[in-house]
Specification:
Radius of gyration: 20 Å
CATH architecture of the largest domain: Beta Barrel
CATH class of the largest domain: Mainly Beta
Number of helices: 8
Shape: elongated
Strand content: 15-25%
Largest sheet: 6 strands, antiparallel, barrel
Number of strands: 9
Helix content: 25-40%
């Protein structure tokens, strides 16, 4: 197993807190001189952990390292699930199409253990849940591979087993999606709107399993 420099992890955590900011503003927030931050970013860039550009930005390698640290922390603190609060919103009808495709349906049956209803429940997340939504971006989840039907290629999907009230299902995060980041899609063996009596605007809490 590769040994990770503890200082490197600390530097990446610090840099991640100012991601998207210009170097001058990032340095001010980190209580560093511009020269000091430039030196740190150059070191991280040489290791492939940040990208070149006008703003601070982690590379995929940097994000992957922080993801592994996050997984270790979740295990250490015995955090097996998290809860998101959202408001039911109407989708574009894409969920019904994609969940009716044999490639996705069979993969969900094999990897998640249930036959998905051909449709998704869309939840617009409460702002306080967005931090937890970003946790999911950094975790591997259950990988549902993409496939081709000979005419079109369909992208991979990341999924997390989940429970909404007393119904077990999953949150799906497609590799390609038209939804904004504050909207998540939920699949289940049943039509959730009917089974739970939900309408647009209803508030719903969903528990997401991390293991």
């Amino acid at each position: 197993m590769e040994c990770v420099d503890r200082r490197l992890v600390g530097d990446l955590i610090a840099v991640s807190s100012v991601e998207g900011l210009p170097v001058s503003e990032a340095a001010r927030r980190l209580c560093l001189t511009r020269q000091g931050l430039y030196k740190l970013l150059r070191h991280l860039r040489e290791g492939g952990y940040v990208e070149e550009g006008p703003v601070v930005k982690l590379s995929q390698r940097g994000k992957d390292l922080l993801s592994s640290v996050l997984r270790d922390l979740l295990i250490y603190f015995n955090i097996a699930s998290l809860k998101l609060l959202g408001q039911v919103v109407s989708g574009l009808g894409e969920g019904a199409f994609y969940m009716s495709l044999e490639g996705y349906r069979r993969a969900v049956e094999r990897l998640l253990g249930f036959t998905p209803y051909p449709g998704t429940l869309n939840l617009k997340l409460d702002p306080k849940s967005m931090a937890y939504r970003r946790y999911l971006d950094s975790l591997p989840g259950v990988h549902i591979p993409g496939f081709s039907d000979g005419v079109r290629t369909y992208g991979a999907v990341k999924a997390f087993r989940a429970r909404i009230r007393d119904i077990e299902g999953a949150v799906v995060m497609p590799e390609r999606t038209h939804h904004p980041t504050d909207v998540v899609e939920v699949i289940a063996p049943v039509k959730l709107r009917e089974a739970l009596g939900l309408r647009d605007g209803d508030k719903v809490e969903i528990e997401i399993y991390l293991d």
